[in-house]
Amino acid sequence: MILNLLRAFWGVFFIFWTAFNTALVDVVGSEQQIPLSVVKLWASAFGGEIKSIAAKYSGSQLLQKKYKEYEKDVSIEEIDGLQLVKKLAKSMEEMFHKKSEAVRRLVEAAEDAHLKHEFDADLQYEYFNAVLINERDEEGNFLELGKEFILVPNDHFNNLPVNISLSDVQVPTNMYNKDPAIVNGVFWSESLNKVFVDNFDRDPSLIWQYFGSAKGFFRQYPGIKWEPDENGVIAFDCRNRKWYIQAATSPKDVVILVDVSGSMKGLRLTIAKQTVSSILDTLGDDDFFNIIAYNEELHYVEPCLNGTLVQADRANKEHFREHLNKLFAKGIGMLDIALNEAFNILSDFNHTGQGSICSQAIMLITDGAVDTYDTIFAKYNWPDRKVRMFTYLIGREAAFADNLKWMACANKGFFTQISTLADVQENVMEYLHVLSRPKVIDQEHDVVWTEAYIDSTLADDQGLVLMTTVAMPVFSKQNETRSKGILLGVVGTDVPVKELLKAIPKYKLGIHGYAFAITNNGYILTHPELRPLYEEGKKRRKPNYSSVDLSEVEWEDRDDVLRNAMVNRKTGKFSMEVKKTVDKGKRVLVMTNDYYYTDIRGTPFSLGVALSRGHGKYFFRGNVTIEEGLHDLEHPDVSLADEWSYCNTDVHPEHHQMAQLEAIKLYLTGKEPLLQCPRSTNEIPGVLLPGADPFG
């Protein structure tokens, strides 16, 4: 058919080209113009022939006839965008709530287990160490902490060998895995195993569940073996992960003061820079910061940002890190000037209402202080002490340690000494536990959700998996420590973004329609134009893939009307003209999109739906009985629209490999009541009628 179509087309084109050349020769010879009427005649003839050929070989008339036969069984309805986005948000809210409840059960179990546990400095306990499990010595005996641990490939975890009955424990390489604090923590947290399993039984769509301890160990379910890198090191420390930091602390405004006086030359300045970098690692998108170097004068690390704070997003932190390398030591350290500046910045920024409006802190990194500067603290911070003071003494000497300790204690902060580069990370983490104290004392079990990030562990056939994490802090309930505000750690579970998309049926969004979600900072959680990798199917990530702003993909929204409304968690509608690429970017369509948006309660996310004007605003609804629908589905030529999900086949293991068409048939016949599918055949409009052209 295609060959006949091409022959007919080229036949018409040849006749047209011959006539054109003949007329052109006549014009050149007689120096006359081609009459407009002749050109119109050619165009009409050419168009008529093309239309005739297209009608003959495309089967459009046959297709119209087929649709006419089924006209009584279908209806065309206009999509109510606002009602649709609210319904989808509600569905997502219910799914998010299930994940939150799983985490809440872990919190309760962990706090109860710790309450019943009494610390034993001599406790001997053999636990499953994730690095050592199944490892044997030269004589064939299992290593200490490396007992036999049964691992079986599981398709729910991308065929990774896991143990769905037990969790195991990872300890960072730089920590002693038999330290009494770790052994005691591992011992009482063993009771989480039964909750892990129970959660997975209740919600088989769950993937990794875990407990990150404030002591540094990481308990993960299902249990899995960890492999060191080529240097024999596992650098992973759960306390550095965003989910841990967000759950452990509240948003904060931070001014970092770095001593660059002459005494800081050499290794001390190197340690100081690394300390600043580690502090930056602990700041998230809800935090604001600035860095000031001082000697006799103040030197803003970024001179363009004098007297203010900036959001601690990835781009800003990397920018400041680059400028840190330009610092050099000379002169005399005038700490009083730096402290005055820091307090003024925090006060002024707080009054603007732009910051975190929560915790405020000054981080002082120096090799000593000759005074306690109590007059400055009395002027700016006492008696309320709203700004916490954290002091880091660089170097082995302790001559000025007392002054720095006093400053920290007098301002509800913390003092620590950093002697070597190896000490940096562990000592920096201490401030997080101090900032968590108000939450612990008030027992504020806030649920936090991270922005989207890539988990390389669960790479699937389409590449690396984009996911978000829900986490909650775990507090000590023991009477002797409750007033001190002791953070035990953080529990969490990962949620693949593709799991969220199952709550959004594509067939309800119309032609060129799509759904998307963003965080409270405007970063994309999911959007069809989000491309986190340099090449599809590869593993090389773009550096800012987790902080792509909505304005970067919906760039026609130049005044950020849509973005700001969603960030402010409003419900409404917005329309604008957009350009959409089709055919893998080969063509561009200009169309008008109507955007409907609302917030997803219980989360920091907002959901949006884009519907294109015209055909995209209408929904094709069937009106057939189950028997009639099954009859159509049994037709040998039936097929489903690609990538449309009607039934959730991920909940129960026996459904994982089931095709959508098979799932629909089993559901409609009542043979698989556990399948989660639409409640009526009217909700399954993507089934193509027998004999219909799938490209029509």
TrEMBL record:
Localization per record: Membrane
PROSITE patterns (UniProt xref): VWFA (PS50234)
Cellular component GO terms, alphabetical: voltage-gated calcium channel complex
Signal peptide, first to last residue: none
A Gene Ontology molecular function term of the record: metal ion binding
Keywords annotated in UniProt: Calcium, Calcium channel, Calcium transport, Disulfide bond, Glycoprotein, Ion channel, Ion transport, Membrane, Metal-binding, Signal, Transmembrane, Transmembrane helix, Transport, Voltage-gated channel
Coiled coil regions, renumbered to chain: none
InterPro entries linked to this entry: Ca_channel_alpha-2/delta, VWA_N, VWF_A, vWFA_dom_sf
Database matches in SMART domains: VWA
Chief location: membrane
Keyword Protein biosynthesis: no
Classification via Pfam families: VWA_3, VWA_N
Xref: CDD domains: vWA_VGCC_like (cd01463)
Bilayer topology term: Single-pass type I membrane protein
VWFA domain boundaries: 253-435
Keyword Nucleotide-binding attached: no
Protein family (similarity comment): Belongs to the calcium channel subunit alpha-2/delta family.
Protein name, entry field: Voltage-dependent calcium channel subunit alpha-2/delta-3
UniProt source species: Platysternon megacephalum
